[in-house]
Design goal:
The complex is a heterodimer. By secondary structure, chain A is mostly helical. Chain A has a domain at 258-478. Helix content of chain A is 73%, strand content 1%. Chain A contains 19 helices and 2 strands. Chain A has helices at residues 2-15, 17-35, 39-56, 75-88, 103-120, 124-142, 148-179, 196-213, 221-228, 231-256, 262-284, 289-309, 312-342, 359-373, 379-398, 401-421, 423-430, 443-461, 467-473, and strands at residues 64-66, 71-73. In chain A, α2 packs antiparallel against α5 (103-120). Chain B folds into 2 domains: 1-296, no CATH class; 308-541, no CATH class. Chain B has a two-stranded antiparallel sheet with strand order 1-2. The relative contact order of chain B is 0.10. Classes of the chains: A mainly alpha, B mainly alpha. Chains A and B meet through α13, α14, α15, α16 and α17 of A and β1, α5, α6 and α7 of B.
Chain lengths: 478, 541
């Protein structure tokens, strides 16, 4: 008996080589940080760790449980691990990354580790642990500009996070009390005789995930945290824990069987719609670049939510598509913002007349904004378009007015989002310079920005390169 | 080259735009020459297209209605249970798109000539201009809804910058308003596009293939049990879903056309845009809206088109009369012409709503003729603005004494626009009115008085044009600022080059309307017939 369990654990470890390499890498980078304080060294270690772990992502795996049923691994997780690493590795090239203390990269690896485990967690306690691992690293990294305001942002983030994880614990204990198990896949909710308190428990537990993925009303920390955290870490925060949180949220919703439970479904749709609306409206009056993008990211969360509510393969494919494109868009956006920051520009007014400094970079910014709005010819359009198609298809099957409302609100939000995203091209090209000329960006900076923008265009013109994703997902029970 | 003429017309400007992008910004003349050369080649290809188009073919279904068709697979995405998302690059022309492509080819060259003197940021201007010209042709040629939509949206961005950077004092307000209005319209179109995509396709051997092909949408290859299937009975807000879709597309394209009450972006955009961009905006971009009504709104939803003929016709008449009355109240010549555009595009809506061959042919003819006339009118305003930097009617009078050649062109185009027989504006308007008044006896779609009311529009337009002529051009020569006097020279060679060809075209099409009406005749007949046969079919389900 004991031998069997041991064997099980030993076998399971083989499938976790990716996570183990990240954990070991995090420790190594901490130790190297003690020896050498130079940023370049820790960047080098960071890239090395990421490349090694990238290499260790299993090529193809059977969907299965590990360690009894604490973890669940599947191909979807594999795809997102790949996405996380490929997104995170670029942060060493951000122009604002010159003077980070070595611990910065340790924390980024910790976020990566926590998020990767979020993709596999299958037990209430392990979910709690990995979410906290990600959150703690995120709280600290928000402070890494070492300013008074970033300290405030970090505290705000910490307090909100603390409250939401306390609620999650309470929710988890309620769920455990009513179902008698901690394992998600073993839970069996009796649809008819569901006690109200269990529903409260589910909502509370899901609430902690809403906090991670910045759904309204758990989005309040986002603008301040994005504004004050170092830009390269904002890229990590805005993509990696968010996507992982959505995957986890989906697992919870599937267990609850959200499509059958109409009131729960209605709540989720409402939250999604409100998130799109609040994100879009909130962005309208922003003047700080990162705050503006932060509100945009909240609206994007609302779009993600729609994909979660559509069951079957379409939902997961649309979700994955959106996640990949969202990662590239955020990469491009925050890279450009990081460039602007090193030139001393952090709000919209500072960008006015930027075309005189560098029209080429301004042109790239236009394409990125167009992609964030979701207009052709960029990948942002393809992702949104595909999501809308899936939503319409779901509406067509069920004639469900809620989904139609969601679809219409999501589409109309594009018009409003035009209004704020367009402010950036507007300032760059249409306004005259009112501030002193910032220094010109270097060729290397332009090269990186070009790579990201070309990726956005390339995916629009040959979306087949993402077909692989669909191929892999086919087997997944979404 | 003959086999893929349309692709050449679409992609040549894009290649030229890349070339312009690599030229140094100081090489202004070289950049202008590249732009001029490209647009001239585009125009020549357009003329080849006109002569190569075989108007004698009588199509029996939309599948064989198109010529110069090119078909290439573009993207094929494997997606979940509804199979593949396939988008094809299909371009082709029929009698409806051919005249509009020809029109675009000619106006694009004239636009380059008229912006020859531009000194600021020449490189960016022509780069955007070339991108715009590519997407315009692409829009008229696309036979795949996805492709059409991409070109349709892609037009907005260059236009936004062209108005926003090179425009007048309130340019930023105007450009954002333009962008927001049009984007709202295109979002409405996007909703319907997704719905149509999931409703149209083929079912072969249990494998369902959805398609974006406009041809299949027009031919009505609906899958059963889909939301937009005419046999289905899906209702939304107490209306069949197909009618809702029709209304959404109608609003989408009416914003672009523009028709009252969605026209308010147009005067702002026109007043602030530089002359050449005004020419393109009035001459071609508005026609994209009209073309969309033909190709998508009416051809795909014939049942709704028949049922809603009366409200659409009334909207057309409102646009004609309201646009005319507002034009009369304007003091700024450019605004006057902008509102007269609204009025004249109302004829397009009215003729289309009538669904008789006269009305539809007139509607198309009106689009082409208005393209030439309004383009010329904006050039005329540009001439006076270049000299005085002012456009107020009351600030100038008696120009006829000082600038006789200029006054001659003004008279020709004003008369063409108000519908003097022998000039092209007359043909379009008379055909539309014949169609609209005849609709009661031909197909009983709407009563006669609607068409008769529209005649008022011609009288109103005569009113404001003649009044403007009298105030600005006749009487004693006078200008508000004495300093303007030295600039009041008659037309330069460049200005002759832009105005004379348009004047010739206006006269030629006015005297020989058959030049245009003959080749498109069969297409128009088929358009009307198929709307009725298909529409009755759908309505009877």
């Amino acid at each position: 008996m004991l031998i069997n369990q041991l064997n099980d654990i030993i076998e399971g470890i083989g499938f976790l080589s990716f996570e183990i390499s990240l954990a070991a890498g995090a420790l190594i980078s901490l130790v190297v940080g003690l020896i050498s304080k130079r940023t370049v060294v820790s960047q080098f270690v960071f890239v090395l760790v990421l490349l090694v772990s990238l290499f260790l992502i299993p090529q193809h795996i059977e969907d299965q449980f590990l360690f009894g049923d604490v973890l669940w691994i599947d191909n979807l997780g594999r795809i997102f691990k790949l996405l996380f690493i490929v997104t995170a590795v670029w942060i060493v090239f951000f122009p604002n990354a010159k003077n980070h203390p070595p611990e910065f990269y340790f924390l980024v690896i910790a976020i990566l580790l926590g998020s990767s485990l979020m993709l596999s967690a299958n037990q209430l306690l392990s979910i709690y642990l990995v979410v906290e691992l990600t959150s703690f690293a995120a709280y600290i990294i928000t402070n890494f500009n070492f300013r008074k305001q970033s300290f405030e942002a970090g505290m705000k983030y910490l307090i909100f996070g603390g409250v939401s994880s306390a609620l999650a614990l309470y929710g988890a204990s309620l769920i455990y009390g009513f179902t008698g198990t901690l394992t998600l896949s073993e839970m069996n909710f009796d649809m008819v005789s569901q006690p109200a308190l269990l529903n409260v428990g589910i909502l509370l537990f899901a609430g902690s995930l809403f906090f991670k993925v910045s759904l309204v009303p758990f989005h309040i920390w986002v603008p301040t945290a994005y504004q004050e955290a170092p830009t390269d870490s904002v890229l990590v925060l805005s993509v990696i824990p968010k996507v992982a949180g959505f995957v986890l949220l989906h697992r919870v919703l599937t267990v609850v069987n959200v499509q059958e439970l109409y009131w729960m479904y209605a709540i989720m749709v409402t939250l999604g719609v409100v998130t799109v609306v609040m994100g879009t409206l909130g962005a309208l009056r922003q003047t700080n670049l990162k705050r503006l993008i932060a509100y945009g990211a909240i609206a994007h969360s609302g779009f993600f939510m729609a994909a979660l509510l559509v069951p079957f393969e379409q939902g997961v494919t649309a979700f994955t598509w959106y996640a990949v494109v969202y990662a590239i868009m955020n990469l491009a956006t925050f890279y450009l913002i990081s460039v602007f920051e090193t030139q001393g520009i952090d709000d919209l007014d500072g960008l006015s007349g930027y075309y005189k400094t560098d029209a080429y970079l301004g042109g790239l910014a236009v394409i990125v904004m167009i992609s964030l709005i979701g207009l052709p010819p960029t990948a942002g359009f393809t992702a949104k378009f595909y999501l809308f198609t899936v939503m319409w298809d779901w509406y067509q099957r069920l004639s469900d007015p809620l989904m139609l409302t969601y679809l219409v609100v999501a589409m109309l939000s594009i018009v409003f989002s035009l209004f704020f995203y367009l402010k950036i091209p507007f300032q760059i090209f249409l306004k005259e310079n009112i501030q002193s000329n910032p220094e010109k960006p270097t060729v290397i900076v332009k090269l990186f920005a070009t790579i990201f923008v070309v990726a956005l265009l390339w995916i629009f013109f040959t979306p087949e390169i993402l077909n692989n994703i669909a191929e892999n997902i086919k087997t997944i029970q979404w | 080259m003959m086999d893929n003429l349309l692709s050449w017309m679409i992609f040549l400007p894009l290649v030229a735009a890349v070339i312009v992008g690599f030229l140094p910004g100081s090489q202004k003349t070289l950049i202008r020459v590249v732009a001029l050369g490209t647009t001239i080649i585009q125009m020549i290809l357009g003329i080849v297209l006109y002569f190569g188009f075989d108007g004698s073919q009588k199509p029996t279904s939309w599948a064989d209605a198109f010529q110069f068709v090119e078909r290439l697979p573009w993207m094929s995405l494997q997606l979940g249970s509804f199979g593949k998302l396939e988008v094809n690059y299909i371009v082709g022309i029929d009698g409806i798109s051919m005249p509009l492509i020809l029109l675009s080819g000619i106006l694009l060259v004239i636009g380059v000539i008229s912006s020859w003197k531009l000194q600021e940021k020449v490189k960016g201007y022509f780069l955007l201009y070339l991108v715009l010209s590519a997407s315009l042709i692409g829009c008229f040629a696309a036979l795949d809804f996805f492709l059409f939509y991409v070109f349709f949206e892609f037009m907005l961005l260059p236009m936004f910058f062209l108005i926003g950077i090179w425009g007048g004092p309130r340019r930023s307000y105007a450009s954002i308003k333009f962008f927001l209005y049009t984007l709202l319209g295109s979002i409405l179109i996007l909703i319907v596009m997704i719905g149509l995509y999931l409703s149209v396709g083929t079912l072969e051997g249990g494998i369902q293939t959805n398609t974006f092909s406009l041809i299949q949408m027009m031919d009505g290859n609906y899958l059963s049990n889909t939301l937009l299937d005419p046999q289905g009975d899906f209702m939304l807000w107490g209306m069949p879903l197909r009618y809702v879709a029709f209304i959404l597309v109608l609003i989408g394209f009416m914003i672009k056309l523009p028709a009252v009450p969605f026209h308010t972006w147009l005067p702002d955009a026109h007043v602030e845009a530089p002359t050449a961009i005004s020419v393109l905006l009035a001459g071609i971009l508005l026609k994209v809206g009209g073309y969309g009504l033909f190709r998508i709104c009416y051809s795909i939803f014939p049942d709704a088109a028949i049922d809603m003929a009366q409200p659409v016709a009334i909207l057309g008449v409102i646009a004609i009369i309201y646009g005319g009355l507002v034009a009369m109240a304007q003091n700024d010549v450019k605004k006057l012409i902008a509102y007269s555009s609204v009025s004249h595009m109302g004829f397009v809506l009215l003729g289309l709503a009538a669904l008789t061959s006269e009305g539809v042919a007139g509607s198309l003819f009106q689009m082409v003729s208005h393209g030439f006339i309004s383009g010329a009118l904006f050039l005329i305003v540009g001439v006076i603005y270049d000299r005085t930097h002012d456009r107020q009617i009351e600030n100038i009078s008696g120009l006829a004494n000082k600038m006789p050649a200029y006054t001659f062109f003004v008279v020709v185009f004003f008369f063409a626009s108000l519908g003097l027989p022998g000039l092209s504006g007359f043909v379009g308007e008379v055909l539309v009115l014949m169609g609209a008044i005849g609709a009661e006896s031909v197909n009983h779609l709407f009563p006669r008085w609607i068409g008769m009311l529209a005649v008022l529009g011609i009288i109103i337009s005569a009113g404001y044009y003649l009044w403007t002529l009298q105030r600005m051009f006749f009487g004693k020569y006078w200008t508000r600022e004495a300093s303007w006097d030295q600039f009041m020279k008659d037309l330069s060679i460049r200005e002759w080059l832009m105005l004379a060809p348009l004047a010739v075209l206006v006269v030629v099409f006015g005297v020989f309307p058959s030049l245009l009406l003959d080749p498109i005749d069969n297409s128009i007949r088929f358009f009307v017939e198929s709307i009725f046969s298909q529409g009755q079919n759908y309505l009877n389900f």
